[in-house]
Amino acid sequence: MGQNVSLSCSSKNTSVNVTYSLFLGRKHLQTKKSGQTVTFYLKISNADETGPYKCKTNDSSGQKYSQDFNFTIANLPSPKLNSRTNVVSMGQNVSLSCSSKNTSVNVTYSLFLGRKHLQTKKSGQTVTFYLKISNADETGPYKCKTNDSSGQKYSQDFNFTIAKAGQPQELHYATPVFKEVVPREQEGHAGNKTDYVYSNLTY
Asked: Which residues form the Ig-like domain (predicted)?
């Protein structure tokens, strides 16, 4: 939709006084005078403009009509809904981008949280919605809907994930180590080398 196209109408009549007229159904669109071939330029904005088209030639020998011609609308894929991050904190501002391969400028994008409509924008291939995640109910599922002349399509669901609170720091306990130390002189008995073994408790 929104694509520019061309239709060429040709005749074996070598007269320079051939009038070519283009019709969409019974509606007259354009008329040109030329030799053997003329080209008509159009834009397909909706499904009603896909056809049938017909060309009429008019010269000194009379009028003649071409066969019908119809365009086929390409089956465009569903829109895509994405965010630069899917892990968020409470109160965080986020953005969701909805993109479509439809080149029409008349695409309406609508954002939903579950079945609740949030925002609507009109644009080309991509729109961005800005939100704030205030509670767990606002993490999703989000869905984007596109609406144009060819119909409506929905994106896949998108969910944010709430970041987990920081884990408490682990406490590391050292293993006690006993070291022998020499007792002070007054703490030993006379005549003995050592009566007690002292230790320091270190961590």
From this structure: 1-72, 77-161
